[in-house]
Structure formats: structure tokens, C-alpha cells
């Protein structure tokens, strides 16, 4: 059977399983059996096809619903963050890597531009901010901006603002990813310019150790939101072997799930920035502990755990 005929014959059933999965255990088991049969056929005749990857992911999800979520007391929120979301992230690891590499590239562009254009720092950061920071440096409080304002109100404002930015980065995927890329560019260039400014003052190390207390999570959330926007854009631009509208529905669903991953990160980042970063005289070891724990959490949840979970369910499903 040709691949196009195989897809046309079964795609409605697959989409129904994905969008409206069976709720009764017998229905779930039957759907899993059918998916394994379809996957076996696809792997035999179309081993390198995207439809094989699609069926593998769908069968894996159905396997999890049978064997990994038997405890009735487990909340749906726990299932989402411990099972569904990591699998979606694993599926789009390449897009996440592209988002990360673009961010690093744009940061480098910001550093290069600031180095070669003396007015670029003020153009990006603003005259008021640069003047205030230079005054704080002369007075011996280079990061005094983080000491101002009420802690709780700062926390609320920072979370609301960062969440708005992340939402805009994700929703930019609706316009073929243009605004996703441009907003990622703007934020990354600002980071590069900011660090180069402190480098010219001989304070890049102190800057990184202070800013990254909250920046590790905050910048990770931006990269994740950009990944979500690119997933949305990619589903519209490159639907593969399924209808463009069906691909867009899947991309929107999975992109939104990835975007929601940034919610707890932004919450924690706002807490750190509002309550912790302001204590710029805290011991070096404590700063390093916070930053390294944040990095470990990001790497563990976004890279290591999704790969482990994917490997585990694939091995169990086809024993």
C-alpha cells in the first residue's frame, strides 16, 4: 500500500484518537492495540517517514495513559507536567535547540554592535537607565536598581510583564513566526548590550552573578516561549502529509503546552528578582547555588527527563 493511501485511509481515526481519546479503559486499550498495529506496518514499509514518527508518538501517549497513570488520585496537573508536557518537549527538542542557538546568536550580535557603536548601548537601554546605573556605580551600588520599590509589588509587576512578553513571543507564531523571531532578537540583543555595558566598567562577573539569580529562569522562559511560537509557525508552514488545518490544530495545541511550561519559571524568576536579587551583598556561594540549581532544573526538565521518559516508554511499548 502506498503511503498516501495508508494515510488517507486512517488519518481520520488517528486524529479522533488524538483529539478525542477513549475514556473507558477498554476503549483506551483497543486504541493502543490499533496504533501499535498501524505503527508496525508504517515502520515496515515507511521507516523514515514522518507518519511513522507521528504514530510512534501517538502510541507512546496511549501507552502512558494505560500504564503510567493508573493512580486515580494523581491530579491532571501532575500528569500534564510529569508526562504529557515532557513528551511534547522531547518531540520538539530540535526546535528548542534552534530557539536556544538563535538566542545565543542574537546575544552575540548585541555584544558586537555595542562594541563597534559607542551610542548603541544608550539606544537600546535608554539614556535614563544608563545615567542612573553609572551614578550607582560611582556611589558603590552598581545594582541599586534592584533595591528600589516594594518587594511584593515588584514581584507582581515583574511576573505580569514577563508573562506578557512570553505570551507575545508565543503568539507571534501565528504570523509565520515573524514576531516570535523579532521579539527573541530584541530581548537577546538587550541582554548582550547589558552585559557589554558592565564589561566596559570591569564588572561583567559581578553582573552575571547578580542578574543570573533571576535571569537563568527568566531567559530560559523566553527561549521556551520562542520554541512554542516556532512550533506553531512550523505546523502552518510545513504541515507534512496531513491537511494544513489539521497540522495547525496539532501545532497550536503542542505549542500552547510548551508555552505553559514557562509559567512556573516566570513565577519563580519574578520571586527571585523581587525578593532575592535585591540583596546584592549576599555571599558568593549562595549566588552560585541559586544559579546552578536553576541551570540543573532547566537542563533536567527540558532535556534529560524528556529523553529518559521517551526512551523508557518506547522500550516498554515494543518489548
Keywords:
mainly alpha; elongated; 319 residues; transmembrane helix; 81% helix; 2 domains; membrane; transmembrane
Oligomerization? single chain
Determine the strand fraction and express it as a percent band: under 5%
Q: Considering DSSP H and I runs of 4 or more, what fraction of the residues is helical?
A: over 70%
The overall strand count is 0
State the helix count: 13
Low-confidence stretches: none
Computed Rg:
23 Å
Q: Structural class of the helix and strand makeup?
A: mainly alpha
The total tally of domains equals 2
Question: What shape does the CA trace take?
Answer: elongated
Quick structural overview:
With 319 residues, the protein is mainly α. The chain contains 13 helices and no strands.
Describe this structure in words.
It comes from Deminuibacter soli. The chain crosses the membrane at residues 95-114, 177-199, 211-233, 254-272, 284-304. By secondary structure, this protein is an all-alpha fold. It folds into 2 domains: 3-90 and 310-317, no CATH class; 92-306, no CATH class. 81% of the residues lie in helices and 0% in strands. The radius of gyration is 23 Å and the shape is elongated. The two termini are 26 Å apart. The model has no long low-confidence stretch (mean pLDDT 86).
